[in-house]
Amino acid sequence: MAEFIHEHSTRVKGEDGTTYIVRIYGPERIDGTWEGWLEFHPTDEGKPVLRTEQETSQPNPMAVEYWASGLEPIYLEGAFARSQGRLL
Fold it and tell me: Which of 14, 32, 70, 73 is most buried, judging by how many CB atoms fall within 10 Å of its CB?
């Protein structure tokens, strides 16, 4: 089961003007390592939550959080595009 890891301070805006809160989730894998992905939660509850595929693989949840805390806005924009099935 995936765990909430981190909420990024940067917000992302969709083309329609919707603002999204960026949250990082990830589960522990069978081998003890952790994976992480990004979820984009709209402030408009009528819109769907968007999610990327796996974005990172780390040795533990603290390493996933460290990775997540260093993500720059340009990375978040690319991940947002990937969550919608389009590439920048």
Answer: 14
15 contacts: CB under 8 Å, gap ≥ 6: none
Give 3-state DSSP helix, strand, coil % of the chain, rounded to 5.
25, 40, 40
Amino acid at 39: E
pLDDT tens-digit series, residues 4-22 = 999 999 999 999 999 999 9
CA–CA distance, 80 with 68 (Å, rounded to integer): 14
pTM of the model: 0.92
Helix (H, G, I), strand (E, B) or coil at 50: strand
